[in-house]
Each structure stands twice: as structure tokens, then as C-alpha cells.
Amino acid sequence: MTKKLAIFPGSFDPLTNGHVSIVERALAIFDEVVVAVTINVSKTPFMETSERIRLIRACFPSDDRVIIEQLDGLLAHYAKERGACAIVRGLRAPSDFEYELQMSHMNRHLNRELETVFLSAEAEGSYVSSSLVREVASLGGDVTELVPAPVAQALRERFS
Fold this sequence. Notes:
Shape: globular
CATH topology: Rossmann fold
Number of domains: 1
Largest sheet: 5 strands, parallel
Helix content: 40-55%
Order of helices and strands: EHEHEHEHEHH
Distance between the termini: 50 Å
Number of strands: 5
CATH architecture: 3-Layer(aba) Sandwich
Strand content: 15-25%
């Protein structure tokens, strides 16, 4: 039997509880999930890629079904190389859908065997984004309920 592998791409700068929820819910559908840490060339990263990967690993320490890798290049090509059958994307608000649908069509154009699965964010965290978490933490706000404990600790260290 072939394992069903999905890829959850994102900058995860930093990882939020919403991201963790999407990974956990994706694992109910797929055998393995690659959390693919992307590099957005149009943004200056808050955390180095290696730090983001380390923190994501710390949030899934004993689940070997969660694979964390850096993604350079086109997602559709990476998915084909990894043998993935799907891309997993989280949707927080209706405004996310328009962009994500466009990306889904392009990925499908580049890799006809690739599906995109959209998972809606949990209602209580639908307003949370990594950029909002960074802003609140940088101004001394408490983000412990918005991010996993290892991320909260890293943010406290960064801004104390």
C-alpha cells in the first residue's frame, strides 16, 4: 500500500497554533505531512530558516509522520519529487480563498497529479497570523495562547 503524502507549505515565521491544528488535522487524512518551510523572497524573514525548522521540530517531537524540510523552488515540482499527492492549505477568512484558489490552479497546471486540500482554520484562531503574532510579541504582548510553547519561549527571548 502506498503512503499518502501531503505537503503543508508556508513561511511559518513563526509557527502558530493554527498551523499546528492544520498539521494535526491533515494527519487524519494523510499518512505523512511534510511541513515545507518556504523562503519568500519578497519578505525579510523575522527568523532564520534554520530556527523556524528547529522550532517546528520542537512542536512535533515524537511524531515521525511529520517531516520538516526547507523548500526552495516551485512547490509543484517539489511535490512531484517527494511523491506527494496533495498540498494542504489553511483558510482563515474568505479573502484567503481567492489567492489560494489561484495558487491551486497554477500548481495543478504544473503538476496534473497534484490536488490541493483546503482546511478551514479553527474559529477561535481565525484572526491569528504570523505577522500579527510578531507584532504583538515585539510590543510586549502575551502570545502564549496563540503559539506553541517552544515558539512562545523563542519570542520571549528575542524581545526581552
